[in-house]
UniProtKB/TrEMBL annotation, chain A:
Domain ABC transporter: 22-271
Domain of life assignment: Archaea
Keyword ATP-binding among record annotations: yes
GO molecular function per UniProt: ATP binding; ATP hydrolysis activity
GO BP term, example: amino acid transport
Entry protein name: Probable branched-chain amino acid transport ATP-binding protein LivG
Function: Probable component of a branched-chain amino-acid transport system.
Family affiliation: Belongs to the ABC transporter superfamily.
Organism listed in the record: Haloarcula vallismortis ATCC 29715
Cited PROSITE patterns: ABC_TRANSPORTER_1, ABC_TRANSPORTER_2
Record lineage: Archaea, Methanobacteriati, Methanobacteriota, Stenosarchaea group, Halobacteria
GO cellular component, one term: plasma membrane
InterPro entries attached to this UniProt entry: AAA+_ATPase (IPR003593), ABC_AA/LPS_Transport (IPR051120), ABC_transporter-like_ATP-bd (IPR003439), ABC_transporter-like_CS (IPR017871), BCA_ABC_TP_C (IPR032823), P-loop_NTPase (IPR027417)
The keyword Magnesium appears for this protein: no
Keywords from the named record: Amino-acid transport, ATP-binding, Nucleotide-binding, Transport
From TrEMBL, chain B:
Stated name of the protein: High-affinity branched-chain amino acid transport protein
Keyword Membrane: yes
Organism listed in the record: Haloarcula vallismortis ATCC 29715
Classification via CDD domains: TM_PBP1_LivM_like (cd06581)
GO molecular function, one term: branched-chain amino acid transmembrane transporter activity
Automatic annotation (TrEMBL), chain C:
Gene Ontology annotations of biological process type: D-alanine transmembrane transport; L-alanine transport; L-isoleucine import across plasma membrane
UniProt-annotated location(s): Cell membrane
Keyword tags: Amino-acid transport, Cell inner membrane, Cell membrane, Membrane, Transmembrane, Transmembrane helix, Transport
One GO MF term: L-valine transmembrane transporter activity
Organism: Haloarcula vallismortis ATCC 29715
A Pfam family assignment: BPD_transp_2
GO cellular component: plasma membrane
Keyword Ligase carried by entry: no
Homology family: Belongs to the binding-protein-dependent transport system permease family. LivHM subfamily.
Transmembrane stretches, start-end: 20-39, 51-79, 91-115, 135-156, 168-192, 212-234, 266-285, 297-323, 330-353
The protein, known as: Branched-chain amino acid ABC transporter permease
Record's keyword annotation contains Membrane: yes
Length: 275, 435, 365
């Protein structure tokens, strides 16, 4: 893992000058008569922790789906690292270095925690059948598997879930599943991670640890965009906050400015808000 | 590699619980059949032949279950068209090997080339079929594939292609009458000129034939057993292949596709490619296994590739348990020996031991006599050709329903084997890491 | 204004249902080709009308047979592979009754109950047809409906009820088991002979060289009546509303207090009854009966249901009729040995390009 992190660090601009990693322009998505995402534009700076907030049904998860290719947008564009990735399949998006977790943890429950982690790294040589089978090519596979195993154990240590390494993922507690999801996406060696409510259902001690990890990883050069309903968490940990309401971006800015924005309060209280 | 390590490996294999289980199972089934035959005083030749038949079918169904397990057990692809792909394999091989002068004519290629060609064609058609099909829900995929296999069968049966000429090339499927296939290639071991009508045995053949002759065992039976041995080697190879695939990163991706395709894709795996490859490989294997199956009979007809053939394989797979190669073999063997061959063996036992009189014409007559306290007529009615095969299929139906109600993942359950090429409990690299 | 409306509607259809448009274009082309062939004399008007008529007969058989399948598919969410053998079971039950009523006194009960088979009952001597023995046929139809409904309920109780929470694939495989059992139970009881059913002077009309069989007409009329009745039942009664609600959303239906278990029973009962009638009528029209009748029809019935859109009763009817007529008309272009294969190809194409069927967007009724 250290290797990837170093490369991520190198990519980060040194002099504090800000660089955009993700740009979203006029995204739109309707389901039948329901407009889930009306018109969403924002950008995320490299190496930041950016919060995405908004009342239930604001369209946050759908926005994630549109960015990561889980659903096709009806209109708009997504740019990642200066590459237009609009309409990419989700595996293509992931291969660009942009991965996401799901709001409801989607652990692969019949696989063990370690298997979950070993699955994630991309472009494994053993994903070609012939290499998995032919004796000579297989030594190469085994070599890589050993390296991945080491990386997986390190990841388990980082998230302090070594004791459940051989447990079926389905047997984990809700909080442990969230940790597993995060560990798993990090195993893909991403540049940026979209986290959909990573703290929901996580107990306070664990929550603190998770946030701690987030900052450690940020230091190492990762970028995070994360959805969270707990205002205190957002205000204390994010560099920038984006507020969504009824499928559109209501406002964005520094946590303090956003906090004191009347429109945001109204949106959360369910009042009419004009955007 | 030193002899020592080979020996160590062999010991490792025998120490493996799964391998032990399989050997014990083979001995148990063989013993059961032999015991009944001896007790009932069947002729040695007949007994050995029964055992050969059971072993032959067990090996074939074990292999078919392994191939289906790759698609359904590993990747969750519900292929209800196995019979169609088997037919494609067998017929491609048959048409490629048929002499140019035969009726229907073929391409006159040597058998190994034809088998290779058949595997490629089956795999290719499997891959092409998968292209659109993998987008479908499992139940629609099932209907599409079963319809596909029926299209294949109806096309092979159609008189239009029985003996035809397309773009100047003459060939044919033989239509409803079927297609003759090359004679059993294993004969080459025992005869100087295996193609002749009354071939002369070579040195090996002469030695073995004269050795077993005093026991009343016929030449064809020796050949049959030799073929079974070859099949068992193929089975071993296929088993090894499936275990390897299951433990590889490729198998790991399949395992996760089976559980949650969207998550797998979100982790950067192109799930469509994995599914297409798996489907194509599984189909190619089914084609090959079907060739092995039909080569011993020397002929193929569309009747052999009805959907029931696919259901047989599913029953074998579900008996063993989806996802586990060992389970597939156990299921194939149990299916072939107990469910498939068992009833007709029982029927022989009943007929032999009870000296049944003529069977009544109808079930009503049999039941009327049962009312008067005589079970024999009903028994005689039940062991007729038609009725015993109907009873066998009724039994299969009940088994399927029972399995789905109680063990939807199969008797041995879904696989628990860890999908990794290395031992995951080791943190750091160690020397003895190879599985 | 109106013109622009039509234009934009047309545009919508082209964008939203490209496949439908392609189908329509191919259809128009084929119709055009039929007229061309009529013009050149390759086929005659008599051929054409007789294809259409036979297609309608097949279509109504498939449609009626498909309604039950469509109902269980949408309400219980699985493809019932035992449906074909329910059709056969209905046919056997109904015809045993019809034989018994028509032939009692002249033949042994054993022979009649077994519908001939091993013991020859000359179907000509019995002379069953709509004109000679309408009561025997009516009784047969009723018994076919009642017994198949009862059989469906029994199967639900024994096989499917214990696995209500299972997924569609598991249920489907179980239904394959049921299919094997039913078909071979029939084989065991009745043996495999193909048996003649009708006899005497089966009435028929000839109009301009086209023959309209009396039993064909019976099938079309009775099937139409039954489908109309089903429609009324589903559209205008409380049961129907409950069934439609359940097809649309099972969980929601449960929450809103619909007695789901009762609806499921009704589905099996009504669906089974219709299926039994279908089996009886198809056998009547064919004049012969074998144990594989329903199984051989099953994929075609699936095709009809899928073509029309799973869960839609009209869909099953219209899908059946379209498929029936298309597959007879196809004789203009392809040899008879490929008819069945062509129908399956049509179904596969449909599933691939428009899995929700021609009449998607409405479930049941
Ligand atoms: N597949 C879908 N079909 C129909 N409507 C949908 C679909 N997905 C989302 N919606 C609707 O779109 C709107 C936005 O949903 P989304 O899940 O994006 O909200 P969210 O901001 O993530 O809310 P929450 O905080 O509750 O997770 C909601 O009204 C939801 O009901
Ligand atoms: Mg959400």
């Amino acid at each position: 893992m250290s290797k990837n992190v170093q490369s991520a660090q190198r990519d980060q601009t040194q002099n504090g000058q800000q660089e955009q990693i993700l740009t979203v322009k006029n995204l739109r998505k309707t389901f039948g008569g329901i407009t889930a995402v009306a018109d969403v534009s924002f950008h995320v700076e490299k190496g930041s922790i950016t919060g995405l907030i908004g009342p239930n049904g604001a369209g946050k998860s759908t926005t994630f789906d549109l960015i990561t290719g889980v659903q096709r947008p009806d209109g708009g564009a997504v740019e990642f690292n200066d590459t237009e990735i609009t309409g990419y399949r989700s595996d293509q998006v992931a291969n660009q270095g942009l991965v996401r977790t799901f709001q409801i943890a989607r652990e692969l429950s019949e696989m063990t925690v370690l298997e979950n982690l070993m699955l994630a790294p991309q472009n494994q040589v053993g994903e070609a059948i012939w290499r998995a089978v032919l004796p000579r090519a297989r030594t190469q596979v085994v070599e890589q598997e050993k390296a991945l195993r080491k990386q997986a154990w390190e990841m388990l240590e980082l998230f302090e879930i070594e004791h459940v390494a051989h447990e079926s993922a389905g047997n984990l507690s809700g909080g442990q599943r969230k940790l597993l999801e995060m560990a798993r996406v990090l195993m893909t060696d991403p540049e940026m991670v979209l986290l959909d409510e990573p703290l929901a259902g996580v107990n306070p001690t664990l929550e603190e640890k998770l946030i701690d990890r987030l900052h450690t990883l940020k230091e190492q050069g990762y970028t995070f965009l994360f959805v969270e309903h707990d205002m205190d968490v957002i205000m204390n940990n994010c560099d920038t906050v984006i507020v969504m309401h009824q499928g559109s971006v209501l406002t964005e800015g520094q946590p303090d400015t956003v906090k004191n924005n009347d429109k945001v309060l109204d949106a959360y209280l369910g009042e009419e808000v004009t955007i | 590699m030193s002899t020592g390590s080979i020996q160590a490996r062999a010991e490792g294999w025998l120490g493996n619980n799964d391998v032990r289980l399989l050997i014990a199972l083979a001995l148990a089934i063989g013993g059961l059949y032999a015991l009944f035959s001896v007790v009932l005083g069947f002729q040695l030749n007949g007994t050995v032949n029964t055992l050969r038949r059971v072993a032959f079918l067990s090996a074939i169904y074990a292999m078919l279950a392994l191939a289906l397990n790759l698609q359904w057990g590993y990747a969750g692809l519900f292929n209800l068209g196995a019979a169609g792909f088997m037919a494609i394999g067998v017929y491609t091989m048959g048409i490629l090997t048929a002499p140019v002068t035969a009726s229907p004519p073929g391409f006159g290629l040597p058998l190994p080339v034809a088998i290779l060609g058949a595997i490629l064609v089956t795999g290719l058609i499997g891959g092409l079929a998968a292209l659109p099909a993998i987008r479908l829900r499992a139940d629609y995929l099932a209907i599409v594939t079963v319809a596909f296999s029926e299209i294949v069968r109806l096309t092979l049966r159609a008189p239009e292609f029985a003996n035809t000429r397309i773009a100047g090339v003459a060939f044919g499927t033989g239509g409803a009458t079927g297609l003759s296939l090359p004679s059993n290639p294993i004969r080459i071991l025992f005869y100087t000129d295996p193609a002749a009508t009354a071939p002369a045995p070579n040195a090996l053949g002469a030695a073995i034939f004269s050795a077993v002759e005093p026991l009343g065992i016929e030449e064809t039976l020796v050949i049959g057993w030799a073929y079974v041995v070859v099949l068992c080697l193929c089975l071993g190879l296929l088993y090894w292949l499936m275990v390897r695939i299951g433990k590889s990163p490729f198998g790991r991706v399949l395992k996760s596709i089976r559980e949650d395709q969207q998550v797998t894709q979100a982790l950067g795996k192109d799930t469509r490619l994995f599914k297409i490859k798996t489907f194509a490989l599984g189909c190619a294997l089914m084609g090959l296994i079907a060739i092995l199956w039909r080569l011993s009979g020397g002929y193929a007809s569309p009747r052999m590739f009805k959907p029931i053939q696919t259901f047989y394989i599913f029953i074998a797979l579900f008996i063993g348990g989806t996802g586990s190669p060992t389970g597939s073999i156990v299921g194939g063997a149990l299916f072939a020996s107990l469910l498939f061959e068992g009833p007709s063996f029982i029927r022989r036992v009943v007929a032999e031991s009870l000296q049944l009189s003529n069977a009544p014409d109808t079930l009503v007559a049999a039941i009327v006599e049962l009312g008067s306290g005589d079970v024999i007529p009903l028994l005689a009615y039940s062991v007729q050709d038609v009725s015993i095969s109907a009873l066998r299929l009724m039994l299969l139906g009940i088994v399927l329903v029972y399995l789905m109600q109680r063990h939807p993942d199969g008797l041995l359950g879904h696989r628990k084997a860890i999908a990794s090429s290395v031992d995951l409990s080791q943190r750091e690299t160690r020397e003895d890491d190879y599985e | 204004m109106a013109a622009r409306d039509y234009y934009s509607r047309g545009q919508n259809i082209v964008y939203n249902r490209p496949v439908l448009v392609v189908f329509a274009v191919i259809g128009v082309f084929l119709v055009f080709d039929i007229f061309r062939q009529l013009g050149t004399g390759t086929i005659t008007a008599t051929d054409l009308v007789s294809y259409l008529w036979n297609g309608l007969v097949l279509g109504m058989s498939l449609g009626l047979a498909g309604v039950g399948l469509s109902m269980t598919y949408s309400i219980l969410n699985f493809a019932n592979f035992a449906h074909g053998d329910l059709i056969t079971s209905g046919a056997f039950a109904g015809w045993a009754t019809a034989f018994l009523i028509a032939g009692l006194g002249d033949f042994s009960v054993e022979a009649l109950v077994l519908i001939g088979g091993p013991i020859a009952v000359g179907s000509n001597e019995l002379g069953i047809n709509v004109v000679n023995t309408p009561l025997a046929l009516l009784a047969g139809l009723l018994v076919a409906a009642v017994l198949t409904a009862a059989l469906s309920l029994l199967l639900d109780r024994i096989v499917f009820k214990p696995m209500r929470s299972a997924d569609g694939v598991t249920l489907m495989i179980a239904s394959v088991g049921v299919a094997l059992f039913l078909r071979n139970f029939l084989t065991f009881s009745f043996l495999t002979d193909s048996r003649g059913l009708t006899g005497g002077n089966v009435p028929q009309f000839t109009l301009g060289g086209v023959t309209f069989g009396g039993h064909q007409i019976t099938l079309v009329l009775v099937a139409a009546l039954l489908m109309l009745a089903t429609h009324v039942l589903l559209q205008y009664t409380k049961i129907g509303t409950a069934m439609r609600a359940m097809a649309a959303n099972k969980d929601l239906a449960k929450v809103t207090g619909i007695p789901t278990e009762r609806v499921v029973k009704l589905t099996w009962g009504i669906g089974g009854g219709l299926t039994g009638c279908a089996g009886f009528l198809i056998a009547l029209q064919q004049g012969t009966l074998t144990v594989t009748m329903g199984w051989d029809l099953l994929l075609l019935v699936f095709a009809a249901v899928i073509l029309g859109g799973v869960g839609s009763i009209y869909g099953a009817m219209v899908g059946g009729v379209i498929l029936g007529i298309a597959s007879r008309l196809a004789l203009v272009w392809i040899p008879a040995s490929f008819l069945l294969a062509a129908a399956f190809v049509l179904m596969i194409v449909m599933l691939l390009v428009r899995p929700s069927g021609l009449f998607s967007g409405r479930t049941t009724a």
